[in-house]
Amino acid sequence: MGILKTFVLGGVHPSENKLSADVPIQELPVPEQVIVPFGQNLGAPSNPLVKRGDKVKAGQLIGEASSFISSNVHAPVSGTVLKIDNVVDSSGFRRPSAYIQVEGNEWDEGIDLSDELITKEDYTPEEIIEKVKKAGIVGMGGATFPTHVKLMVPPGKTAEYLIINGVECEPYLTSDHRMMLEKGDEIMVGIRLLMKALKVDKALIGIENNKPDAIRHLTELAKKYEGITVHALKVKYPQGGEKQLIKALTNREVPSGKLPVEVGCVVQNVGTVFAVYEAVQKNKPLVERVVTVTGKGVSKPSNFKVRIGTSIHQLIEAAGGIPEDTGKVIGGGPMMGKALLNTDVPVVKGSSGILLMQNHAASRKEESPCIRCSKCTNVCPMGLEPYLLSRLARVKEFDKAEKEKVMDCIECGSCQYTCPASIPLLDYLRLGKTKVGENIRNRNKK
Predict the structure, then answer these.
(1) Is it the case that residue 48 has pLDDT exceeding 70?
(2) I need a labelling partner for 184 at 20 to 30 A (CA). Which of 96, 256, 264, 272 fits?
(3) CATH fold for domain 1-19+110-363
């Protein structure tokens, strides 16, 4: 296989703990009730199109994108809208949401629910992008950026490579791994559709070398599709970051403050690619996804296909329930995920995993003074100085934090993971990014 590709700057090697890697995807029963937030994407929430008492079908549009960076929301079930109310979602914020009581399993007209593989390619780029937009697809690796916007290459820019992110470098999570093994054919067709939408002739699939079965499987499938190649990558976190993946696969570096298209690349997660396949070939909007439920104390670590809006509590029960020694329930993985306030929050488009952490692993060590060891700087994949940035955020020097490029932080958590003083660096970096982002938006309004 030769020397494995990877990014150069920084990175760490946390324990992989891929406990559910060999567990096939199981489809969970449709719940009795779902809660569907109208804000499930990076950007503006959608505008509700339904009200209390309305009857809806699965796949029906219930929330319309409200701005350029926004995405449609569809009913994941059929039934009656009980109310529109605010609910605390996995991010910890209250979002306007539709409560839907499930009644039957009736789908909106025109949606193909069969398992038949469709390989039709005679769509125009514009038709593909429009179908993706209508389906409400967002980045399903966790970023939730509206996919149709990513496919609209700005004037004066040219896409050369479609980069497919099959890395799944976050410890514990295995939903993408299982998708590559079980939905490889559909992913290949989805890649071809995205290539056509972007008008590129090269697609590079990056997969870390701890998934040899996925590498073999997609490599074999790719032989039938011109322009698609599979690349084994060295196991190193955060290999799945857009800029890190582009560096590993193309040796190109995205400039500070710029998007991947600046260097001719567009990156899409494998889960997103499958959703694109379903949207274009099956007219099926994004109303369900695969979620990993895992943890060292979990009796049945699993990968579940679930409807959006399903309570996380239901997924945990299907995996054997909450172990007694659980200290935290994390939405996502241990590096970038966030602790949930409770397990009644709904699954959303960006929900890739649920991690039940044991007490001893979940408890934070007492913070001690920085010893100037420079470990946080050495592991930062963006070449930043995490201690300096966190210090500036702590003392509210947000203008200085902006000059030191806090907005380049990808919130990977490598700095906090390696800090011997147990300083909550990531918390302060997130604070700094939030405040600097507010300042930038306020400046732009003037």
Answers:
(1) yes
(2) 264
(3) Rossmann fold (3.40.50)
